[in-house]
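Structure first, sequence second, as always.
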């Protein structure tokens, strides 16, 4: 998934950190911005290259709020970074995350279970995130719109043909951890079931669903 470093800017707030990078779909960015609320100083470590995952160079409670995309393949590093965000933030810490317990509920599991197994392993359990953040935490599903402009697999929940494009799959890093056989079998099987109508018999209702609530969640924790 693309980073959320531009989320507040895209949703009408101010960019933080001085770097311009692509943000997520505007509607997903809006969810992040609303969770940040009226905070005036917001730390986005993704917008500050070179910070690493060690102790952040800020004092305790330096920021009104903080935000993070929790999509790192190294779970300990992600949790360490969250602990540091909590230390330097006196208000809410907002995390756009993937709930690994929900990953394999997506229809892609029928066609490429190996990909979703990899995806689930790459994300820390939500309970681990909330434990590190402490305080009071709220976890909500993030509605993914049917015409989502982001590039993670669930963004194509109602547009399966899009995932037949190798460039669309390459945008999802979990695909890089499976071999050619998995990709070829996925392509062959999905094409066949789209032609036969079997995909639509099973999942066609998703083509008409305006939003999809899958594994994408937002965690908002306050001290």
């Amino acid at each position: 998934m693309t980073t959320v470093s531009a989320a507040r800017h895209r949703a009408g707030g101010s960019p933080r950190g001085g770097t311009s990078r692509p943000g997520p779909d505007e509607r997903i960015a809006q969810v992040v911005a609303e969770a940040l609320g009226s905070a005036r100083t917001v730390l986005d470590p993704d917008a500050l290259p070179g910070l690493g995952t060690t102790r952040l160079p800020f004092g305790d409670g330096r920021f009104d709020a903080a935000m993070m995309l929790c999509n790192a393949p190294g779970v300990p590093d992600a949790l360490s970074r969250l602990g540091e965000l909590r230390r330097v933030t006196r208000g809410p810490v907002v995390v756009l995350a993937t709930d690994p317990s929900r990953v394999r509920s997506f229809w892609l599991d029928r066609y490429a279970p190996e990909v979703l197994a990899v995806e689930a392993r790459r994300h820390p359990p939500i309970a681990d995130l909330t434990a590190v953040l402490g305080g009071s935490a709220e976890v909500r599903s993030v509605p993914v719109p049917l015409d989502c402009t982001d590039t993670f697999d669930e963004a194509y929940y109602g547009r399966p043909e899009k995932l037949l494009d190798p460039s669309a799959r390459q945008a999802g890093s979990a695909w890089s951890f499976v071999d050619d056989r998995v990709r070829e079998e996925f392509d062959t099987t999905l094409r066949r079931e789209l032609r036969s109508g079997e995909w639509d018999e099973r999942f066609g209702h998703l083509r008409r669903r305006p939003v999809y609530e899958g594994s994408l969640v937002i965690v908002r924790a306050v001290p």
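Margin note: Residues 1-22 have pLDDT under 50 and may be disordered.
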